[in-house]
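Structure first, sequence second, as always.
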């Protein structure tokens, strides 16, 4: 009888985890399409409105800044009420921002555009926070794989979204809207549907259930999960994610502008960004397995090396070479994936359940600010010294991951 008790206790948790992951996967497929919209045409929309490349990075900066504020709010709501309301509200806010971008484009109003892009950033923050929900009920030994399952789901929508830039542009023109507003029609619908899926079906709430299972533990003896622990706490994991986000956003933001300056159209830029987003999320199952099998530190080092290679290739690729730019952006996405999965696992390992959601939200703020800084600086750098210098500098900056990794001290 005694031996059956652990299995009986484990079964409801395993069943709940499967349901949580299923719902998160559906929501992430939808939100991936919304996420890709701003990446593909946000910089081009600002460039056309303002007539300047120097401010082409501003849309990504504002969207990322908005995601920083949203990360705080989502973290606090999740901490107080659970993942379900936090994530649903975040996606709904992203849908409202998408509608604002469409209105701004129709009115050719840059001020409204920038405000709407700031609100639109909530969708990005929510998409990233969802990975933590996948890890709440996961066994520590399989935490990397749980995170990767949520991430890979974004691939389907993320790859489809940029490739729908041209068709949705035609649809926008047909209804009297500017062509570049078309993908934001897609993103608004996608984010709204993701919010609905989470609000209705994310039950049980993974964070609340994980806390409820921890309640029988003595308050004087906090529950300690098995798995790796670090005396250095979550800071190294946060630094890894900050650096990978900054490098990735800076190069990614200016690649469509760089391609446009060399005569490529929206379809070519959309293809390259689709490959990039696919590389960001599609390798996640393998990355999760590698993180669980070979350790968080190994994959973090791999992130720095891969991002360096991406920067070198992007810097040396001829402007008219779509294949080489696509390869550079694929490596850029892969390096980001390595950094995100390993960094997320380090943070989740290091933070107790009682403060997990709030701490994760705070860390994601830093990640979002890094992305905003990269997006803002990228336009200025390209306008001043060119895209190749930006790409090479970002690749070299990625090597700063190595000192962060060296600071990790296992217990």
């Amino acid at each position: 009888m005694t031996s059956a008790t652990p299995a009986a206790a484990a079964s409801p948790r395993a069943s709940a985890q499967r349901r949580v992951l299923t719902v998160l996967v559906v929501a992430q497929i939808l939100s991936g399409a919304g996420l890709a919209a701003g990446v593909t045409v946000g910089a081009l929309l600002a460039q056309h409105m303002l007539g300047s490349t120097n401010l082409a990075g501003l849309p990504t900066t504002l969207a990322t800044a908005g995601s920083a504020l949203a990360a705080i709010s989502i973290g606090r709501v999740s901490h107080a009420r659970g993942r379900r309301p936090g994530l649903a509200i975040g996606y709904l806010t992203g849908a409202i921002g998408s509608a604002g971008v469409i209105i701004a484009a129709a009115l050719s109003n840059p001020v409204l555009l920038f405000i709407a892009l700031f609100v639109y950033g909530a969708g990005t923050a929510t998409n990233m926070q969802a990975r933590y929900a996948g890890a709440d009920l996961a066994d520590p030994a399989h935490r990397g794989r749980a995170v990767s399952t949520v991430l890979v789901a974004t691939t389907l929508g993320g790859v489809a979204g940029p490739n729908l830039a041209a068709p949705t542009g035609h649809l926008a023109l047909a209804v009297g809207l500017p062509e570049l507003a078309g993908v934001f029609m897609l993103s608004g619908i996608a984010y709204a549907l993701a919010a609905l899926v989470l609000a209705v079906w994310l039950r049980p709430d993974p964070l609340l259930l994980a806390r409820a299972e921890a309640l029988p533990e003595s308050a004087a003896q906090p529950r300690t999960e098995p798995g790796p622990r670090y005396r250095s706490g979550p800071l190294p994991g946060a630094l890894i994610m900050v650096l990978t986000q900054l490098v990735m956003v800076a190069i990614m933001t200016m690649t469509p502008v760089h391609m446009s300056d060399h005569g490529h159209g929206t379809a070519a830029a959309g293809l390259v960004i689709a490959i990039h987003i696919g590389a960001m999320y599609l390798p996640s199952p393998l990355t999760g397995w590698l993180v669980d099998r070979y350790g968080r530190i190994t994959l973090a080092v791999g992130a720095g090396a891969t991002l360096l290679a991406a920067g070198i290739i992007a810097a040396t690729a001829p402007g008219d070479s779509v294949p080489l730019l696509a390869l550079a952006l694929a490596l850029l996405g892969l390096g980001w994936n390595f950094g995100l999965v390993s960094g997320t696992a380090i943070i989740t390992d290091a933070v107790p359940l009682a403060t997990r959601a709030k701490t994760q939200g705070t860390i994601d703020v830093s990640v979002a600010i890094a992305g905003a800084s990269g997006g803002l600086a990228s336009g200025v750098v390209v306008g001043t010294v060119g895209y190749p210098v930006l790409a090479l500098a970002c690749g070299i900056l990625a090597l700063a991951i190595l000192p962060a990794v060296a600071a990790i001290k296992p217990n």
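Margin note: The chain has one domain: 15-212+226-406.
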